[in-house]
Design a protein that fits this description.
There is one protein chain. The chain has a single domain (about 5-305), classed as Up-down Bundle (Na+/H+ antiporter like fold). The longest helix is centred in the last third of the chain and has 33 residues, at about 275-305. It is about 70% helix and about 0% strand. The chain has 13 helices and no strands. The protein has helices spanning about 5-25, 30-55, 60-90, 95-100, 105-115, 125-145, 160-175, 180-190, 195-205, 215-240, 245-255, 265-270, 275-305. By secondary structure, the protein is mainly alpha-helical. One of its GO terms (cellular component) is membrane. Pfam families: Mem_trans. One of its GO terms (biological process) is transmembrane transport.
Length: about 325
């Protein structure tokens, strides 16, 4: 089956689950406090478990090379987007929009989509991009949306993710056997990740569901930049970079074309910024990505198969 079609079907499923989360909070069956606690469970426990599980199977050296290559490329693209965003939006203006055009929803959207189309071992690449996203979000990204020199109430800690990578690396290097009952238990627990993440995402949209909230053309401008303009620019740039396997090329394109990160709302709330504007952009790009991601990925696949001649070991 065409990978873009798989992505489209998976997005339909994920957004449908998000609607359930929206409905549960709207009907007071879930509180925002509970949603916040579930978010902590995902970030601190389920995401690290997914990373560890990616190391259960033997990992070819080429995948490790692709992992570091993807992180370097992604970091460069993030820095490029930040630089252009400062020029386009103005250095000290509209920080929320700038942030939203730079950072994608790697955790809640990227990881489930990767699991939908590739072997779980390739989640290692996506989680590497997830780590880069979080690092830049809480450093340069925070400076974009900071208001009146307020300090954020919480700080980013990469320790759970880094610890998961360390544990996974030890398993690989020492070739440690994983008891079937443990691997099966972790695998079943990780099946909760995608639906739980989307329930949380849907819950965040309860306060911004009115159609009248989206009459501001600047919201649509930001969405077009995030979902169409930057993904196409980055896609053609990827064609010029040698050594990318199809999986790495596809995952990078998918993440770069993804909807704006929920951090656009969460960080702006922490520093006294326009939290609702950030949430509106996230919702608009999440729904819009249902159309744009499959189209861009289908185009990217065609370009890779016909014009990318510098692929790596796993091509074909």
């Amino acid at each position: 089956m065409d990978l873009a079609l798989i992505i489209f079907k998976q997005l339909i499923i994920l957004i449908s689950i998000a609607v359930i989360g929206f409905s549960l909070v709207k009907k007071d069956l879930l509180s925002q406090t509970t949603i916040s606690q579930l978010n902590t469970v995902i970030v601190k426990y389920l995401t690290p478990l997914i990373i560890v599980e990616a190391f259960f199977k033997p990992i070819h050296q080429e995948l490790i090379i692709q992992f570091f290559l993807a992180m370097i490329i992604y970091a460069c693209f993030v820095l490029l987007r930040i630089y252009v965003g400062h020029w386009y939006f103005g250095k000290d203006e509209d920080g929320v929009s700038k942030f939203a055009t730079v950072f994608g929803n790697v955790g809640f959207i990227g990881i489930p989509l990767t699991l939908a189309v590739f072997d779980p071992s390739f989640v290692m690449i996506t989680t590497g991009l997830f780590l880069v996203t979080n690092f830049f979000s809480w450093t340069l990204g925070l400076r974009m949306i900071r208001v009146k020199d307020k300090e954020p109430k919480v700080k980013f800690s990469p320790r759970p993710i880094l610890l998961a990578f360390l544990i996974g690396a030890i398993i690989q290097v020492l070739n440690l056997p994983i008891p079937p009952i443990l691997s099966q238990g972790i695998h079943q627990l990780n099946q909760v990740y995608s639906p739980l993440a989307m329930i949380i995402l849907g819950a965040y949209f309860v306060d911004i569901a009115k159609v009248s909230d989206y009459l501001d053309w600047k919201l649509w401008q930001t969405a077009v930049i995030k979902l169409i303009i930057w993904p196409l620019i980055n896609l053609f740039m990827l064609l010029l970079i040698p050594g990318l396997s199809f999986e790495t090329f596809f995952i990078l394109t998918m993440i770069l074309a993804g909807p704006s990160a929920m951090m656009a709302a969460l960080l702006s709330q922490l520093v006294g910024g326009d939290y609702l504007k950030g949430a509106k952009i996230v919702l608009l790009t999440t729904v819009g990505s249902l159309i744009t991601i499959p189209l861009i990925l289908n185009f990217a696949t065609w370009l890779y198969e016909n014009y990318y001649v510098l692929g790596g070991f796993m091509n074909g």
